[in-house]
Every structure is written in C-alpha cells, then in structure tokens.
Amino acid sequence: MNSNANPLSRPLLRRFAPSLIKGTIVAALSGFALAACSPQPVAEAEPPLAGATIGGPFTLTSSTGETVRWADFRGKYAIVYFGFTFCPDICPTDMQRLAQGLKILEERNPDLVANIQPVFISVDPERDTPAKVGEFAAAFSDDLMGLTGTPEQVAAAADAFAVYYSRGEDTAGGYLVDHTNIVYFFDPDGNPLSMLPTDQGADAVAAEIEKWAN
Questions:
Q1: What is the pLDDT of residues 76-124, one digit of tens each?
Q2: Which of 27, 39, 40, 60 shows a CA-CA span of 20 to 30 A to 11?
Q3: What's the CA angle centered on 126, arms 130 and 156, to 5 degrees?
Q4: How far apart are CA 25 and CA 48, in angstroms?
Q5: Angle at Cα 81 formed by Cα 158 and Cα 129, nearest 5°?
Q6: Do 85 and 126 meet the contact criterion of CB atoms below 8 Å apart?
Q7: E-strand spans in 156-202?
Q8: Above 50 in pLDDT, residue 5?
Q9: What sign has the CA pseudo-torsion 188, 192, 198, 202?
Q10: How many C-beta atoms surround the C-beta of residue 208 within 10 A?
Q11: Pairing of strands 145-148, 116-122
Q12: With 0-12 CB in 10 A as exposed, 13-18 as middle and 19+ as buried, what is 98?
C-alpha cells in the first residue's frame, strides 16, 4: 500500500465518479444528436431522361416553307411532340394543355418561357402540308412551331426521337394515324430532360418544366 496516497482521494472519487460518468454520457449523446440533426448533403436528382438516346438530326419544313433543322434549336429549351392535324382528340388535348402550362409558367417566369421553343411535328405528311401544320399550331399558341416534311424526312425524325407511328385503314371519314403521344422536353444543348405530363393537366406541365430548367 502506498503510504503517500491522499486519504481523501478514494472517498472523493466515489462521491464524484457517478456525476463525471453521467456528464460524459450526456456530452456524448448531445454530440451524437447534433450530428444526427445536422443537415446532410442531398445528392441532386438527375432528370428522368438524362443519358437517353432521344433526339437527333432532322430536316423538316415550317409553315412558311423554310427548312428547319434540329440544330437550329440549340441555345433554347425545346419541347417536341409528334402528332397529326386530323387527330380528333389526343393531339389537340395535349397541345392545349401544353400551351396552358406555358402560359401559367410565363406569369411567374417570363424569361424562362422566352427561352423555350415548343414544336409540333406531323406524322401525317400525306395530308399535313406546311400551311396545315401552321394553322393547327396557331390554334393553340403563336409560339408553337408546326413542322412537316416528306415521308422520308418525317420517318427519319420520328426514328431519331424514338416515336412510333402507323397509318390506319381508309374509311369514309378518312384515316387515323396511331402514334406515340409523348411530349419531350430538351435542354438548350439538345439533351432530353423529361416527358411533360400533359395527362395531368397544365399545372403539372408548368411544374415539370420548372423542375428541370436551370
């Protein structure tokens, strides 16, 4: 036994040890709680179509007879939809909701909408002349660009945008065209970002554009 030990050390240790241990545990838990409550960095979500091979070179004709190429849209966001002017319901509904969505967005972010070019591409080159697609597009928005072309040009454009279409049977009232009705949204470099939810209404369209446009 060490004769030089302080006779008060053990009683003091016994007296204060619980408090010291308790304080250490509280401090440790407090540190853990602070760490747990601290905001953690959240990985930025990628657009749904990031990296998809959708979109590519095309040469088509505008309502004024001018040649329009996919490269002409670089520097602006582009919204691309394939349809036909004789479509009885789906195409007009999609274009109406798109135009309404852009109108809603324009009220709160006019600069963004000024940098977006919506495009309607016909999959019915047999009937959809430049004048016809121009008339159809103007019925929804002065900013909607209508494009058409030869059967070969339309087929090449549809293939570049992963769009299916097929001419239906002739009837007394004409024929319909079965086609993919996707509203594609592209960034200013021509990269696909997302599909605009026209089936959910104009507000959903505006929100989706705002979500992915920088």
A1: 999 999 999 999 999 999 999 999 999 999 999 999 999 999 999 999 9
A2: 27
A3: 80
A4: 46
A5: 75
A6: no
A7: 165-167, 177-179, 184-186, 192-195
A8: no
A9: negative
A10: 23
A11: parallel
A12: buried
- Spell out the alpha helix ranges (H) of the chain: 9-37, 90-108, 110-114, 130-138, 151-160, 202-212
Per-residue pLDDT tens over the stretch 48-76 = 999 999 999 999 999 999 999 999 999 99
**Cβ–Cβ under 8 Å, residues 150 and 161:** no
Based on its alpha-carbon atoms, the radius of gyration of the chain, rounded to whole angstroms, reads 31
Which pairing describes strands 59-62 and 116-122: parallel, antiparallel, or unpaired?
A: unpaired
Give 150 or 29, the one with higher predicted confidence: 150
∠186-188-194 over CA atoms, to 5°? 20
- 17 pLDDT band, cuts 50/70/90, is very low
Measured CA to CA, the distance from residue 199 to residue 182 in angstroms comes to 10
23, 26, 31, 33: CA torsion to nearest 10: -170
The whole-angstrom separation of Cα 161 and Cα 192 is: 10
Pair 101, 202: CB distance under 8 Å: yes
Count how many residues are written for the chain.
Answer: 214
Which pLDDT value is given to residue 173? Answer: 84
Superfamily of domain 59-212: Glutaredoxin (3.40.30.10)
What is d(CA 80, CA 195) in angstroms, rounded to the nearest whole number? 10
